[in-house]
Structures are given as C-alpha cells and as structure tokens.
Specification:
The protein is an alpha/beta fold and about 325 residues long. Helix content is about 40%, strand content about 15%.
Length: about 325
C-alpha cells in the first residue's frame, strides 16, 4: 500500500499543495472552511504527517510501538513483557504508551508514533475503539487481546471459545442446572467467543442457551448483574472476567447464598487475586506472555512481508478449578 502524500490530500480537497501545507502548520492564513475540508481529506485518505521526511521512505527505523490501556496492571503486564522480550531480542527499540482505555488518547498516541515513522505497532485496543482509532495510514499493526470490528490486521488472543466451553462443562459436571453468563458488553471482542463457548457446552448437554446479564467491567455493576441472575434462578454463573466474578461473589454473600453449595462460579483471566479470594475463584487461564510474544513475532513477520495475508493466533486456555466451583481449595487444571 503506497503512502499517502500531501499532494494527494490537496487534490482530494481541491486546494493547492501550498494550502494543504499551511493547514499542516496550522496557519491562520487558511479559512476555517478550507482548513476543515483539508483535514477531512487527511482523515479519509489516512494521511500521516512525516516528521522524518529526510529519511529514505523505504528505510526501517528499528523502532516499534507498544500501546496498551495500562502498563502497571498485573494482567496486562504479562502481554507487554512477552512482546518486549521478543522485540528487544530482535534488536528493536520499543516505545511504550498508555491509553487509559480511551480511544481518543489511543488515536493521538498511535498517530504521534506514525508521524515519527516507526516501523509498526502492537496494540491492545481500548474498549469502544473504531477502526480509525487503531489503523493510522499504512503503518503495520498487530492487535493483541482485543480486536476492533471492521479491521483486517494480524491478531493474537486467548482461545476464549475453548475457555468458555471448559468452564461450562466443568460446572455441569458439578451439578449445575442453569448457567447464566454475567458481565462484559456485547461489543467487547472477547464477549461473543466466551459466550459462544459456554453455549456450545450447553447445547452439547441438551441445555438451553445461557441467559445473558451484560454489564460494564466494574465490580459495582457486576454485583447488580449477578444479583439479577441469582434472584432469577441461576445456580451457576460463568462471568466474563475475574473482576466481574469478584462482584458476583459479593452479590451472593449479600443474598445469603453459600458458594459452592448454593451457587457455582467460574470466570476468565486467572488474575492473582483469584487464588486468594474467599472462596478461591475458578478461572480460565492463558499465557499472557506467550500471547505477547506471538504478537511481536507477527509484527516482525509483517515487516518482512507486508503483502502477506493477515494471521490470527489463538493461545491455548486452561480452566484452573478452585473452591468456587466445588473443587478442593487447592487448584487443579483441565483443558479441552
């Protein structure tokens, strides 16, 4: 894909190259209507201002970006660590940036990286991202953990469908009669595969599909959603994430439900707190470091062969069974 030039923007907007250049410099000499028309053309064409124009256009900078909602969160740190290890072993300089799960901040950050002509980006997209929030010009990207609908790039994530199937099957073996799915929002990229895995297990057991109780990924919202599921008659919950499950445990306690005697609970992510919650939480685990490493390798392959078809890699998942599903307090693992 050829890089969009300023002259292309000018022609698209119906102005001279000099006028387009003035817009880039935010000159007061350009009328507001013209300025907006040029900026719209930049967005439509995917134009990125080249701050390294003195460099050869086909050169490699030896620098890549690593963009994530947070770098201090223990769960996300695994992915970042895995990606950094591979990239640094390739002699690549890594520039890391934090979006605070804000699509607008993410766009500003990725655009700033593209303007400096780095080679590519590994990004854990912010929730609610649109394609234009992650795809800037022709710069190669690899999406990690989350995939933005409408994009066609390399992608690495956990095998969430398998994880959901494992969780539901395990709860069924422990006597669950009605399994509900609690938490997350349908537009989250992991929502459909996690729910789909649960429903696959239920269908194979001739059970009805799980009732859904979507909510924001916050503990207070999780308490409300889980309380609704419990009062509606669910005796088992598969929660979108461990954070949702911790809210569900609190809701069960408030309703006087004993776990696992009255309610079975399983979730996703296997964060450290899952081992120490009361009761300990059964959770679907995958290797974040492996996922990060695979994303970095995909980016290096993409840089070597820009025309290759996009790849998707799903990292294996394993259910770590603990007390919340009726297993002994010491952890045990199972996978498909």
């Amino acid at each position: 894909m050829s890089r969009i030039r300023l002259i292309d923007v000018a022609e698209h907007a119906g102005v001279s190259r000099a006028t387009a250049s003035l817009v880039l410099r935010d000159s007061p000499l350009v009328a507001d209507a013209t300025r907006e028309r040029v900026r719209k053309s930049m967005r439509v064409l995917g134009y990125v201002y080249d701050r390294s124009a003195a460099a050869l256009r086909n050169s490699r900078s030896g620098v890549v970006g690593l963009v994530a909602p947070a770098l201090s969160h223990p769960y996300l740190t695994q992915f970042v660590t895995g990606a950094q290890r591979v990239l640094q072993s390739e002699g690549v300089l890594v520039l890391a940036g934090v979006t605070h799960d804000d699509p607008g901040q993410q766009l500003r950050l990725i655009t700033a990286l593209a303007e400096r002509r780095i080679d590519g980006v590994v990004v854990i997209p912010a929730n609610g991202s649109a394609p234009e929030d992650v795809v800037v010009g022709a710069m190669p990207i690899v999406q990690l953990v989350r995939r933005v609908s409408g994009t066609d790039s390399d992608f690495v994530a956990a095998d969430n469908s398998s994880g959901g199937c494992q969780a539901a099957n395990h709860l069924l073996r422990h006597g669950a009669r009605r399994i509900d799915f609690v938490g997350g929002l349908p537009h989250f990229s992991s929502y459909a595969p996690r729910l789909g895995g649960v429903n696959q297990a239920l269908a194979e057991a001739d059970r009805p599909a799980a009732l859904q109780h979507p909510c924001e990924p916050a503990r207070a919202a999780a308490r409300r959603a889980a309380a609704q599921a419990i009062t509606d008659g669910a005796d088992a919950l598969v929660c979108y994430s461990d954070e949702i499950a911790f809210g569900a445990l609190e809701a069960a306690e408030a309703l006087g439900k004993q776990i696992p005697e009255d309610l079975l609970v399983a979730a996703f992510d296997d964060v450290a707190e899952a081992r120490y919650s009361s009761p300990s939480l059964s959770s679907v685990a995958s290797s974040g470091e492996l996922a990060g490493s695979e994303a970095a390798r995909l980016l290096m392959r993409r840089l070597a062969d820009p025309q290759a078809a996009p790849e998707q890699i799903l990292v294996p998942t394993t259910l770590v069974a603990r007390a919340s599903c009726g297993c002994a307090s010491s952890s045990s693992s199972e996978s498909d």
